[in-house]
Amino acid sequence: MSAGLLRIGTRASALALWQANTVADLIRAQPGAPAVELVHIKTEGDLRTDIPLWAAGGRAFFTREIDRAQLAGEVDIAVHSLKDLSTLVAEGLELAAVLEREDPRDALISRQGATLRELPPGARVGTSSLRRRAFLLRARPDLELLELRGNVPTRLERLEQGKYDAIVLATAGLKRLGLAAHIAAHLDAQVMPPAVSQGAIGVCARAGDAAALQWLRALEHPATRLAVTAERALLRRLEGGCQVPLGALATLERQQLRLQASVCALDGTDSLDGRDQAPLGADPRAAAAALGVRVAEELLARGAAGIIAQQRTPLTPELP
Residue 50 above 60 pLDDT? Predict the structure, then answer.
């Protein structure tokens, strides 16, 4: 951190900038806060719009270049959609703060306002997420699933142009951009389990960088941190280097952390659901991580590895 200036690394999409500006405002509101500057960084995910997300190689598709800028001292902190961040944070960096989660559910946006059940047979639905593809086919095997890339406004525009009958996006991104009025229906987490950490914002800093870390403590939302800790531990145990059609959601109720998770074959014909809960105890984060591993082990014991092995596609994060 340079004298009196905290530099925030971020992608330049409308949603990424909303998230980065939100973090900047929270920092500026603290007594004695430094000046804050946003630094726009293009990532591989921004540049490679010619391929489906599931066909892109490597893990940190939307974060690698930002990680490099942090480690090189070009920016001090980075703001991410937490679902984009690898479950193993780059060496030398730490997930310093997790902001309060927005609605984690997926949303269906349709040209005629139809819900998932009301879409006509063979309706064309746009998404580039393997998770969404798998669970959509589990619910509606008749749907025609088409690739859809681009930022949120671009995706909405393509829907309006008639290229799709419906598209699926994250509720959180739509709400943050003031576009929630487009939502035809929220998809229940039992039907469409959300992506791990969906709706949460993560802030990374260099490990041990006290000058930057001191401004991030006030941003931490403990309940969200525990929920995403369980979900990320589950994903880390299951992913095995591949993109996994996995949905998971943890919730905290009265000092009990509950976790539900589902793994689904890409054609929707085979799926497994698992759930468990745990008291937080003296070390809540350790309890949350252990819960995630325990649910993952349950799914593996019941055959999740066989479902996951059916695809073996490179792991990439999801767009909103």
Answer: no
Given a cut of 70, is residue 3 above it in pLDDT?
A: no
What whole-number distance in Å separates Cα of residue 161 and Cα of residue 125?
Answer: 13
Q: The pTM is what?
A: 0.91
- Distance in angstroms between the alpha carbons of the first and the last residue of the chain: 30
Catalytic residue among 67, 76, 84, 165: 84
Whether the CB-CB separation of 171 and 199 falls below 8 Å is answered with yes
Residue 314 has what pLDDT? 45
Tokens of 229: 């800790």
- Going 139 to 142 to 148 to 151, the CA torsion angle's sign is negative
- For residue 47, give every residue at least 6 positions away whose Cβ sits within 8 Å of its Cβ, in sequence order, or none: none
pLDDT in tens, 200-218: 999 999 999 999 999 999 9
Closest CA to 257 of 287, 222, 218: 287
241 Cβ contact partners less than 8 Å away, ≥ 6 residues apart: 315
**pLDDT tens for residues 107-138?**
999 999 999 999 999 999 999 899 999 999 99
Of residues 65, 61, 84, 7, the one with CA closest to residue 38: 7
Question: Which H helix or E strand runs over 261?
Answer: strand 256-264
Name the fold adopted by 106-187: D-Maltodextrin-Binding Protein; domain 2 (3.40.190)
| Residue 106 annotated to the active site | no
Calpha distance 71→78 (Å, rounded): 11
